Amino acid sequence: MCVCVAPARLSNTIILASAFQNNGTIRHVMGYQNRPQSQSGPNAMLLPIPAVPNSVSPKDLILTEDFSHILKDMAAAIHPPTRAMPKSFQPQAVSAQAVVFEHGIYTVVLAQNASAIAPALDQVPEDKRPPLNNAVFDAYTEWYPDWAIALCCFNNADLKEGQPILLTFEPLYPDRLFCPGLDSHTGDVPDLRAAVMVDHTLVLNAPGMERGYPVSYRDEIPEELDSILPTEVIGNDFGGSLTNGDWWFELDQVEQGHFNSQRITPPFT
Question: Within a domain: residue 256?
Fold first, then answer.
């Protein structure tokens, strides 16, 4: 359900891709949650972020400890039946290109590009520091040039649910929404021609979207997130075998309430 730097089991993935108006400009939102299980000690999964180069910063991360059900509630909305403040955090600035911080079961390296990951790994606690997988990091540098990357480090032998990861960003592609789907759980560089097993729920939102399903949040949502979290979504479940790749959606189609996905392998233009 994503790319890991060492063997892992991942399941129950929920991905949010949405857009919202911010002072007259469009920003995008990526949300991600799954259940990771490491099979060989410290591990990490990579999430590419199609943001304008060098534009992602810790202020774009929304910590979700106090409203941890948001992605599940969005996923539930696409299957209709027959306010605490976010916690503050102090990221450790490794360089201008990477920061490291704790988020639930993860230690996250938020890097401006894939080449900035390796120099930051020594700031990850040893018990969650993944192996230096230069082959995978080099592939991401080639496939997602100048994209931000969230490296989510974990080390749990038992299957555990990760805290939702939620961040906003200035998009490289304002007219398209992106859901990461490239897959390899073995620690090897993903085979772009392979068929892979998927277990995903994708939920989408766009400003002024028509014909969406209303979301009922069970947690108290901070007022300042009212413009960011969707009140209605469209979406779909994906299971079984698909050709490897990421999902893309045309924003104008989402605005009209249409879920028309494109499964594309990187790099993108």
Answer: yes
Share of the chain above pLDDT 90, in %: 70
What total of structural domains would you count in the chain? 1
Residue 210 lies in a domain: yes
Give the model's pLDDT for residue 92: 67
**Other Cβ atoms within 10 Å of 94 Cβ, number:** 20
CATH of the domain at 42: 2.60.250
- pTM of the predicted model as reported, rounded to 2 decimal places: 0.89
Query: E strands along the chain, which residues?
Result: 3-4, 8-22, 25-38, 43-49, 61-62, 92-95, 98-103, 106-111, 148-154, 165-169, 176-179, 195-205, 213-214, 232-243, 246-250, 262-264
Domain that holds residue 209: 3-264
Omega of the bond leading into 36 within 30 degrees of 0 (cis): no
